[in-house]
Amino acid sequence: MTKKSVLFNVPKEFNINDERVSVDELDSQINPYLHNDKHQHDPDDVAALPSPKELPQITAEPKRVRVGRPLRHVKHKPTKEVTYINNQIFPKFSYEKIKFPLKPNTLIVHVKYFAVNPIDLKIWNYYTSDLTGAKKGFGREYSGEVYQVSEEGDQAAAFEEGDAVTGLYYHLFNKGCSASHILIDLNKDPIVRVDDVSLSLFGYQKLGGWAYNFATAFQVLNSITAGGLNSESTVLVNGGSTGTGLMTIQILKHYFHVSNIVAICSGTASDLVTQCGASVVIDYKKEFDLIKSISTLLTNGKKTIIDRHGNEVEVLYPDKKFDIIVDYLGGTTLLEAHQQILNDRNGTYLTTVGDKRANYRSKEFVYGSGTVVGGGYGRGALLMFGGPRINYKMVNFDGSNVKNLNNLLKIGLEMIRQSQLQVKVNSVFKMTEIKKALDKLKTQHALGKVLVEVEDF
Ligand SMILES: NC(=O)c1ccc[n+]([C@@H]2O[C@H](COP(=O)([O-])OP(=O)(O)OC[C@H]3O[C@@H](n4cnc5c(N)ncnc54)[C@H](OP(=O)(O)O)[C@@H]3O)[C@@H](O)[C@H]2O)c1
After folding, report:
1. I need a labelling partner for 87 at 20 to 30 A (CA). Which of 13, 16, 185, 366 fits?
2. Which fold has domain 73-212+423-453?
3. Residue 445: CB within 6 Å of ligand 1?
């Protein structure tokens, strides 16, 4: 645009009190010192000064405030995820979208921490190839904050943006919660709001790695039918320091008030396992003949253990066979010895692994591999000879009943509030270090949870 110059016709003379006065004359009267530097202004000659002009009134311009674009213009929430297609190609970051508007009874969680579990290795190993190219993810449990809630839905009304939450994300053959944001379907995905007390006691980190082991352990114990579970029950936990084993011991102790708990674990873990509620610990690294050690305990009704201060202490134990054996390692050593160590009639043997010993590093450690293999003296062989008079159950985590799982998570939060539940964190990795996290888990000797911190996105 070109500037336009505007010309005014300035009059040369003015009429003042019926006299014609020239502009120059007028000017020299009003501002004498402008025309003569030497002219001294007489301070008493006030009339000679022109009246001060009003300063122009500056009308303040309204401040410009940046406002968010109306939501209807935003079509999706971008997310950053760690995904893989098969176990030949290493997981990488992918950028996805959660579409708006959210369907009724759904919400978006901004994930803060998720844990990796053996099930993640199993699913990963499952995909030796996948021609569909569908993306899969890691992580079945998480902690985070509610990012957005659907406008419709009774269940959604119980949540607000900014709520601290923890939950299970059991989308086995799909994407996991290894993502900056996940879409939660409240009719399918178990999730609970975390109260301030639980949050201050556990923090987001531990809340990212408790739910899966807790819910599995609860389901395992809930599957005991014969004889039930009561404060007099005697229980052996094989793999007492596994994530699920630690939860089992704490649930047994504080929820079912069982005090006779024997745990098999290494000496390194014995302090933690005892703190969680085991009355006797059998160190599998020192007591090579496990069956003999267990039988001696059950026959003598006592055992000498080394306490946390390094002192030898004698602990008493009921001189009777176990009512329940819970197994988180797999294999058949204990099963084969059931006549020596497990009650004949109502004895229950529960395993989440099966006849074959779990080996996290094996390519054969795949989803569905744990079930009875029938080899050796496994359940298959036992049944062939008429079957033992024990209750044997292979228990798999059931992620289908959202109502039931929400209740379990609420029980868990209450136990956290009562300081009855602890979670040991083994290590925390960044999303970019997912390989390190999986390698740590694969050692099968990570005492405590292997967590991944999700960076802000
Ligand atoms: N079927 C299902 O739905 C289901 C659900 C959950 C878990 N599971 C299975 O249950 C098993 C346990 O899972 P998790 O996540 O709880 O385990 P985890 O936390 O990964 O277990 C690691 C712990 O195992 C201990 N350990 C290793 N070898 C041992 C041995 N020979 N004797 C005693 N302890 C030993 C290690 O302690 P040390 O290094 O001190 O020995 C370490 O603390 C896995 O096989 C998993 O796949 C199945």
Report:
1. 185
2. Quinone Oxidoreductase; Chain A, domain 1 (3.90.180)
3. yes
